[in-house]
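[stage:ingest] chain + small molecule (pyridoxal-5'-phosphate)
[stage:ingest] validated
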Amino acid sequence: MLNFTVGPVMSEDYVLSIGAEQVPYFRTPEFSAIMKENESLMKEFTGADADGRVVFITGSGTASMEAAVVNLFDEKDKLLVVNGGSFGARFVKLCEIHGINFDEIHLEYGKSLTREELWQYSGKGYTGFLVNIHETSTGVKYDTDMIGEFCDKEGIFLVVDAISSFLADPLDMQKQHIDVMITGSQKALACPPGVSVIVLSSAAVKRVYDHDPKCMYLDLQDALTNGERGQTPFTPAVGVLRQIHARLCSIKEAGGVETEINRISGLAKDFRERIKELPFEICSDSLSNAVTPIHPTTVSAYDIFTVLKDEYGIWICPNGGDLKDKIFRVGHIGALTTDDNKTLTDAFKKLQERKII
Ligand SMILES: *Cc1c(COP(=O)(O)O)cnc(C)c1O
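[stage:predict] done
[stage:export] tokens:
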């Protein structure tokens, strides 16, 4: 199997081999030490401030999106939510379910948020901002510097879902005025799904303690307090956390977060170069290094996904809903190489020879 989806993605062998081991008991100093190191590496890789903290939630990325919304905001808040696709729509739904006031910036698919659009919301009393910095469903990356500048000027608390962007695109919580950033184990961390990560600035930690918990499993006060001793309130996905540990340490040894971002951006550039002669349009006005969204001009996007999966053992990422026939996505996260890019583009060329595309 060769997997170019946007998650779960391919893992390195050292990550896979941990998955084959017995899962150890976790209320031990040894596991606490692993968790402490996970926390400090996550802070280092996201540019969190010295008193910032990290919470590891057992649950996919959406669990951490929900934890952020429930623990940081209440009915007194007024949020601004960027909705440019299915992940933006998820933040909208979370606000609705939890009774939090919000306005939505609705964007057309493939379109980024402009400065003019954003500044129309200036001076309107917003207290929080929710954005999926890379809207993975359409492959559009928003301008984090611009959003951070806006929130800083307006005194708005900024929550960034960087689930598919962390390790693929540059991000610096302090420089970009990000109060909370969220990621997940199965994207560029390239581990199995099951764990998501919330990095909180010191201001965000304070905000969590200023709000009464409204939910038991996702109570961040409880998670932060337990985390002080390297533990979690409930049994976490111990095996995945050990895999995340190996992965974070390996990134650190290889030169740190910038080296990893350069590796992924190199793969993205290589792929985008290789598809130039194919009947494909890249359909995003602002790309992340994590994903290339492609509109095939001659055939249904979903048919290409099916043929590659069934006849070539290669998985690209299909889209759902209205975009099913319009676009597919090719991920550049996970244990992929430029040789893998060649395998995929050779398969596309075969489909062209076969007059399928
Ligand atoms: C993958 C992803 C999520 C999380 O989805 P889960 O299925 O809950 O892991 C959230 N936001 C974005 C932008 C993502 O790419």
